[in-house]
Structure formats: structure tokens, C-alpha cells
Design brief:
Blueprint: E1 19-23, E2 33-37, H1 47-58, H2 67-70, H3 75-80, E3 87-97, E4 106-119, E5 125-141, E6 144-149, E7 155-157, H4 158-164, E8 165-173, E9 180-188, H5 195-205, E10 225-231, E11 234-239, H6 246-264, E12 269-273, E13 276-277, E14 284-286, H7 290-294, E15 306-309, E16 312-316, E17 322-324, E18 346-347, E19 354-358, E20 364-369, E21 377-381, E22 389-390, E23 396-403, E24 406-415, E25 420-426, E26 435-441, E27 447-453, E28 459-467, E29 474-482, E30 490-495, E31 500-505, E32 510-514, E33 517-522, E34 528-534, E35 537-543, E36 549-555, E37 558-561, E38 578-581
Parallel strand pairs: 3-7, 11-12
Antiparallel strand pairs: 1-2, 3-4, 4-5, 5-6, 8-9, 10-11, 12-13, 12-14, 15-16, 15-38, 16-17, 18-19, 19-20, 20-21, 22-23, 23-24, 24-25, 26-27, 27-28, 28-29, 30-31, 31-32, 32-33, 34-35, 35-36, 36-37
Helix pairs in contact: 5-6
Length: 585
């Protein structure tokens, strides 16, 4: 029987009812959560009630070994059922069947609805949208009806997942160990541990499969977490061993500060080893903002917007008035056929700003430094190229399409020593035999988004990772985040941050997509042509009914014109502002 306390918000009165109480210590490192209390089966329950009770028992956060849920199973099915593997997440529409005569010994109950996702053993949530039609076979035993067959793993409703899991951001390192990469995972609530401790323990386990081969960690594989506590307004992380070398210590500190930032609430973090000060005679105290100092691209503030107008690249000043950039890129007289009126520029993120544009015939990409003496130089030639994109380390990405349903991913570096551009083909087996219409690397330098068009002319969006450099570059771990269908075309994509992506469809619909959630519609603007983003700032190039253009800014819940002319007007004008872009956008 369930022991119900005064804190319970739901008291079980029958099968399928869920007992929920408030658990957690109230410590900032262990915020309260709704603990589900499992209810064992009763001998007089019907088959449908047994299945409903089993569903509720699987969701119990107070029964980590699922001992109560196992009571619903026959001895033979118990040997097959494994709650430690991948978790199916569903939205229920019906629970059908289970009717039986008094002397019936076997029956079937079917759970119907939608499979909305899965949670892997590494915590990676993969959204889904598949029909759920899961039959449970039940047999009548001396103690009542028991489940003899069905799904052989854990099944949780969306509401169960909201109660039993927490979406956390884990911070890892890129391949150069100079930047940070966020890995979002679903972390199960552990009733015998604090959330901070389970979060750091998961950090020490390393990246999820979505970052396989693409991200690193400063923590050695044999390191263990002893505890995470608070002391003198600090978060104290006690490890079994430390790391050596200033670079590794800085990287470890950034990973801890970022991962604990939500729970620490601005408090600094002290790292200890076996309860002793990190350096023996002195403490290692990590600033609460260490992750931002380690990797400035985590919060790239102060970035100015670029856009096209009159065949030239312009840059907004602090008053939202545009000025031509320095050099040939800002002078339409020096376009030399490289920049069309509606060209889609890409602007680099390193100290020496460079602009890259695709020619009108899509057969070449030219680059010009944004300096007074900067001149256009052809970097890439091909058959049918896509709009270029820079990564954080100064390499230029594009895709050549030599024929139908054929794509070659290209990465170009400028060799300062030899004063020449060095091209490399990027291995991407999943993209070789499809038509790629867009490719953009996120500002973390690891995540990459591609738009793929199938033979029916329908577009879908995939997110993957960049692994390696130069000739060893490859794209892997690709997963679909926006499905193709209904002749859907994608006009543009723009990374919001290292976790989510804005998607602009051919119908001017705007979506937000990621690896950890299905695409979410956003309020859009009519006749959107392109988008760019920087964290929560989202802008779009649009035109009105008469073909006049302007750049608009998303000011929730609506949009407003953004670029001013010399008179301070933000009106739509012929050949007005178009193709807005932030560095690395």
C-alpha cells in the first residue's frame, strides 16, 4: 500500500491514479520536484486497469529500481523487460480492449496514440511523430491479471517525462579545446541524490552520441565525483582527482561553471580533491562566469549587423543607420560582377572581418577583407554552389552540386604562410547522393545544419556535427529535425545558438528546431526572404506588396522595421535593405 503524506497532491484511489508529492531538499542545488509514488496491482483489477497501473508505476521517481512496476509482469516477461535501455515517450489517445468473460485466462489491451520521442541511455532526446499501437498481452494468474507481453522497455507519457526528467545543458570542449559546445540531455530525477550531483556525474560521463567524435572533455576517464555541496556561499565540487596544466584546469573550470550555472545562481565554484584544497595549500575558485571568459562566442555581445543595399555591403551603426563597409565589398563600382543586388553575404567572425558572396551564376564564391584596401578574390569555383558560410576558426564552407541528387561539401582555408587558399573536400557520406540546398556551421564550430531536397522537390532540415580539420574533416551524426512533406521548401536557416536553429520555409513560415524538441512555429512576417540570428536577436529581410524591401526585427510578439536611412526613416523603399547577416550568421 502507498504511504501518503500531507505533501501529496494526488492520492491514488484506483488503478492508473498517480501519487505525487513534493520532494527535494529545497537547497538551490536540489530544487523541489514532483515525486511519483508507485502503486502495486490489486487482485480484483481488470486487464485494462492493470495496464493503466503499470503505466503509472513505470513513471515512479520514488522507485528507482522499478520494483513495483515489476509486480505487474509475469515471471517470463519479467526476464525480457529492461527499464534501463531507451525510453519511449508517448502521447496517449486511447487504451482499448481487455474485455473478457469470467473464465477467460488471456486477453489483450492496446495502447494507442503517438510516439513523440525517445530518450537514449546517454540522455539524448530524439523527437518523433510515429503512430503508437502497442498491444499488451495479459494472462490471469492466482494473484490477478498480469502482463505477459508488450513493449520490452520503459514507456513514459509526456507528462511523466516532465515530472521524472530534467533537461540540462552539459558543457564540453571543441576539437581545438578552445571553445565550448553545449550538449542538451534529459537527466532522470534521482531521489537519493541532489540534482547538482547527478548533473556533474553525468558531465563526467562525457558527451552524448549526438557529439560522438566531435567534442572533448578536460576530465580524465578515471575521475570520480565525491559530492557537490554549498559552503560559504560557494558551490563546492569534490573530485577524486584533479587535472594538471593551466590549459586543462581552465577548460575544466569552464565546463563546471557552464554546467552548474543554472543551479549555482551566480555563485562561484570551488573545486577540491578528496576534500582538500585543489593546490594543496590554496583553493581553486572558479568564477561563476568562467565559461563566458573561456569562450566569448557563448555570449557574442556587441556584434553589428551587416546587410546588402545598392549592390554593396553595409554595416549598421549604433543608431541603426547603415554605412558602407571598407574596401571593395562596400563599393558597388568594384563589384566586378561578383555581387548582385540581392546577394546573400557571409561575414567571418575572426579579427580580420571578411565577406564572402556567391556569384549570380552560382559558379564561384569571392572573398574580400573589410579593410580600406580589401579587394575581391575568387576562393571557390564549382558547377552549382550554395551560399557560403564561415566557421569560428576562419574556414569557409559551401557545397557544390555537380549533378542531380549529388552534393560535395567543401571547406576552404587561407594559408597565410603560402598566401593561397587551400580547398578540402569534407567527407559526408549521408549527403553524397542528395541535393543540399543550404549548409551552416553554428558559432560553436561543431554543430552544422543542412537543408536537403529529395527527388520530389521537398526539403528537410538535418543537424549534425563537424569532426576533424583540413583533409580529415567530416560531417557525422546527422539527424532530421524538420521533416520533408507537402512540397515543403526551405528558404533559409540561421543558428540561434549552439542548441537551436531558426528555419524559414518557402511559405514565409518561421520555425524553431533543435535535436531535443520538435519544430515549434513562431510568429512570422509576410514575404520573408532571408533570416539571421544572434542568440535571442532575430532579423529578416522582407519585401512588401510592391516589391520594396526592408530588414525587420523580431520584437515579441511582433516585428518592426529596423534599418534607418540618413533621415531616420525605416520605410520600405525600392532596392532597400536586404539579406541581413551577423558574423558567422
Amino acid at each position: 500500500m502507498v504511504m501518503a503524506t500531507a505533501a501529496c497532491s494526488v492520492i491514488p484511489t484506483g488503478p492508473g491514479d498517480v501519487a505525487v508529492d513534493d520532494a527535494g531538499s529545497g537547497d538551490p542545488l536540489d530544487p523541489p520536484y514532483a515525486r511519483v509514488i508507485a502503486m502495486p496491482p490489486s487482485p480484483d483489477w481488470t486487464p485494462k486497469e492493470v495496464v493503466a497501473g503499470f503505466q503509472a508505476a513505470m513513471a515512479s521517481t520514488g522507485d528507482s529500481g522499478h520494483a513495483v512496476a515489476r509486480q505487474y509482469l509475469t515471471a517470463s516477461f519479467l526476464k525480457k523487460w529492461d527499464p534501463s535501455g531507451e525510453v519511449m515517450v508517448y502521447r496517449q489517445s486511447a487504451l482499448d480492449g481487455g474485455e473478457s468473460e469470467e473464465d477467460t485466462k488471456e486477453t489483450r489491451v492496446t495502447l494507442k496514440g503517438t510516439v513523440t520521442g525517445t530518450i537514449g541511455q546517454d540522455g539524448l532526446y530524439r523527437p518523433g511523430d510515429d503512430e503508437l499501437n502497442e498491444p499488451f498481452t495479459l494472462v490471469k494468474e492466482s494473484a490477478g491479471w498480469r502482463i505477459a507481453g508488450g513493449h520490452e522497455g520503459l514507456m513514459l507519457s509526456e507528462a511523466d517525462v516532465r515530472r521524472a526528467y530534467r533537461l540540462v545543458d552539459l558543457y564540453f570542449l571543441d576539437s581545438k579545446r578552445r571553445g565550448l559546445v553545449i550538449d542538451q540531455v534529459q537527466l532522470p530525477v534521482n531521489p537519493v541524490s541532489t540534482r547538482a550531483k547527478t548533473t556533474v556525474e553525468r558531465l563526467l560521463e562525457g558527451p552524448s552520441s549526438s557529439l560522438a567524435g566531435a567534442a572533448q572533455t578536460a576530465f580524465p576517464p578515471d575521475i570520480k565525483l565525491i559530492d557537490v555541496t554549498t559552503e560559504n556561499s560557494r558551490v563546492v565540487v569534490n573530485l577524486s582527482k584533479g587535472v594538471t596544466g593551466s590549459d586543462n584546469i581552465a577548460a575544466m573550470s569552464a565546463q563546471l561553471a557552464g554546467t552548474l550555472s543554472e543551479l549555482a545562481g551566480g555563485s562561484s565554484v570551488e573545486v577540491r580533491v578528496n576534500g582538500e584544497p585543489y593546490y594543496g595549500d590554496s583553493a581553486l575558485v572558479v568564477d561563476a562566469q568562467a565559461q563566458l571568459k573561456f569562450d566569448p562566442w557563448m555570449t557574442p555581445r556587441g556584434m553589428q549587423l551587416f546587410y546588402m543595399q545598392g549592390g554593396a555591403l553595409r554595416q549598421l551603426d549604433k543608431d541603426n543607420v547603415g554605412q558602407p563597409v571598407a574596401g571593395a565589398a562596400g563599393d558597388p563600382a568594384k563589384a566586378e560582377g561578383r555581387i548582385g543586388l540581392l546577394a546573400r553575404p557571409a561575414v567571418s567572425g575572426h579579427t580580420l572581418r571578411q565577406a564572402a558572396v556567391l556569384s549570380d551564376d552560382r559558379r564561384s564564391v569571392s572573398v574580400a577583407p573589410l579593410t580600406p584596401d580589401g579587394q575581391w578574390r575568387e576562393w571557390v569555383t564549382g558547377n552549382d554552389l550554395v551560399t557560403p558560410n564561415w566557421d569560428r576558426y576562419g574556414s569557409l564552407w559551401t557545397v557544390d552540386r555537380p549533378g542531380p541528387q549529388s552534393s560535395i561539401v567543401l571547406r576552404h582555408y587561407y594559408d597565410e604562410e603560402k598566401q593561397q587558399v587551400r580547398p578540402y573536400r569534407v567527407a559526408a557520406s549521408d549527403l553524397d547522393t542528395v541535393e543540399v540546398t543550404a549548409l551552416k556551421v553554428a558559432r560553436d564550430g561543431v554543430h552544422v545544419a543542412v537543408v536537403v531536397r529529395n527527388a520530389m522537390g521537398e526539403d528537410e532540415v538535418k543537424i549534425g556535427t563537424v569532426i576533424g580539420e583540413g583533409a580529415a574533416s567530416r560531417i557525422a551524426n546527422l539527424r532530421t529535425v524538420v521533416n520533408a512533406g507537402d512540397k515543403q521548401t526551405i528558404k533559409d536557416i540561421a543558428w540561434k545558438d549552439g542548441k537551436s536553429l531558426y528555419v524559414l520555409t518557402g511559405k514565409s513560415e518561421l520555425l524553431e528546431a533543435s535535436l531535443t524538441a520538435g519544430p515549434k512555429p513562431l510568429v512570422s512576417y509576410p514575404r520573408m526572404e532571408s533570416i539571421t540570428a544572434l542568440d535571442d536577436v532575430l532579423l529578416a529581410g522582407v519585401k512588401d506588396d510592391d516589391g520594396n524591401r526592408q530588414v525587420v526585427y523580431r520584437n515579441v510578439p511582433g516585428w518592426e522595421p529596423w534599418v534607418k536611412d540618413e533621415n531616420g526613416s525605416t520605410g520600405f523603399v525600392p532596392d532597400g535593405p536586404s539579406s541581413p547577416v551577423f558574423p558567422l550568421g
